Amino acid sequence: MNTRQLQHFLALIETGSLSAAADAVHLSQPALSRSIKALEDELRVSLFDRTNRRLHPTPFAMEYLERAKRIVFDEREGARTLGLMKNGAYGPLSFGLGSSVAIDFLASLIQQLLAFGPGLRIQAQVHSTDVLLDALQKEKLDFFIGDVGAAAIYPELAVEPLYKCNFGWFARTDHPLAGRKDVRIEDLRQHPLIGSGYISEILTLKMAHLYGMQLPIENNFAASTNNTETVHNLILNTNAIFPTTYLAMLKLLREGAVTVIDVQPPFELDLTLGIVTIRHRTLVPAAKHSFTIIRSYFESVQKEIEAYL
After folding, report:
1. Which of 33, 69, 245, 267 maximizes the CB count within 10 A of its CB?
2. The pTM is what?
3. Domain boundaries, the chain
4. Burial class (CB in 10 A: 0-12, 13-18, 19+), 239
5. Which residues of the chain fall short of a pLDDT of 50?
6. Which one is the CATH code of 3-85: 1.10.10.10, 3.20.20.70, 3.30.70.100, 3.90.78.10?
């Protein structure tokens, strides 16, 4: 048995089709069939039932699946570790983060990383946690900064919680509702409400319960976007109101351009941001240096935001 056979096995599991799996691993169908048959002979079990021109995984295949994934992963990681040592171990570095963090922190993070390793090659993606989670699981990222609660359910991922978010309803400082006490959802609905574009199912249900919103939650908003810069422009130039984290509004809070509407009940959700990685995966030194910078950033942000609460 070799890892190429296991790769063929995994491709066949994923596609469910001999032709599609053959294309994925760049083999002819007969060659792929021979590889799977050789693996079955060595394991002394039948891995696929061949019926109706399709291959259906047997219980033996499903039992063996996670072990096969680990073996392939370990071999790939072993080669990757040696490559890092051979090439100076600086990079490349690929990571992701949400728009609310990126608008305040991404440029500074990249600047500090380039100072750390002048030859470093960086790829930074700005997406919501669900997109970044998928990219990390496909090993397209070394890590991402996002909702650790959404990642913690996957045993193959490791999370480091760093920052518990505070939420509020934000509008420009001269908004008609600015300064009013005990504002209710009915008052908010007199103005355009902007959604964040991404919110986990748990947070969606909590928000709907707090404010009597109907599901799906996006139907309660005039517009939704996960681009924080766009939201900033809408808030400053219209009567739009945005329910979000203080972190997402930090730039405008510093400038005194936005205020927090006194909405009742208070906007309290449980969202913790942090670093998400693949468990047991070897990280380049630049990634570990990134973690030091990220930890320091969230420590300083926590102290700064406390002044606005």
Report:
1. 245
2. 0.73
3. 3-85, 89-161+272-306, 167-261
4. middle
5. 88-89
6. 1.10.10.10
